[in-house]
Amino acid sequence: MMIDTANPLPGVPAQKPLRDTHGRTIKYLRISVTDRCDLRCRYCMAEQMTFLPRAKLLSLEEIAIIAERFIARGVTKIRLSGGEPLVRRDVAELVQRLGHNIGSGLEELTMTTNGTRLAQHAEAMVDAGIRRVNVSMDSRDPERFRYITRHGDVSQVIGGIMAARDAGLAIKINMVALKGFNEDEIAPMLAWCRDEGFDLSLIETMPLGAIDEDRTDRFLPLTKVFDELSEQFTLAPDAHKTGGPARYWNVDGTRTRLGLISPLTANFCDGCNRVRLTTEGKLYMCLGHDDQVDLKAALRDGGTAGLDDAIDAGLFAKPKAHDFRIGVGERPAVSRHMSVTGG
User: Fold this and answer.
1) I need a surface site. Which of 6, 181, 185, 235 has the fewest CB within 10 A?
2) Using CA atoms, how far apart are residues 30 and 298, in angstroms rounded to an integer?
3) What three-state secondary structure class fits 249?
């Protein structure tokens, strides 16, 4: 579907700020442009996934309209995610359309990708106004990478990362810390990022959706990881903020930053400034809750006014904190997979 990349829809004047009932102002919208992915990471998806029928998805035009309404109401940062956003046909047109809003309310447009298609898209992303990307890569060992993704080729991902850097994109590696699997690679990954000029964010595994393994077996608290890294690197607190939940440390006096995303060992809900739009058009106020409003129906039935009403209803329902718990026998906090909500 073609969308008008040159003429973004002007938002009607905003009358209400994006503020929830706990006093938090929403500045950050994460958009899952597809629930599909060309990898099958074990902590994220079951091997046999049932994806949404294409007829149920928001069109790219609808995604752009909703995103621009959020910008008109005060959102300054948008991250495109999935699934894998670069598997959606014509996603480059959406990136270009949203990029026209940079400097007109939108301060930053970014993307989280698995890197498999980054080499083909990097230059177009820079041309559209994206300046940095997060690349999910939990191991640089070819066999481990293939195991955790079920069939992925890590050399393809690393090649995409290098192509993105050459195109001018700043790179942050997202690595899920997994006990008994990749914990011995965390320090080497940080050293590699330091040497290559990349940032690294470590993420605790989150109990989202039913998978084929027990997450308890793989849960690795980042408090333990940080203590071990502190013995090998000079880590100084860094006030750097990207709008997300990570807390940052400077690494060895270089430009590399280490970020820790610790939903279980260091709850970050008090400062939550985010909401998430799924590819189906549902607005989720929290990863750890099932409360949502249907923005697709609101837009189609009521236009911009209906969209505003639905957004307001969602903000009213935004919870104070998530319900993530991990332990033997614990069920996932929510049944949907991360690929549905968007990372």
Assistant:
1) 6
2) 19
3) strand
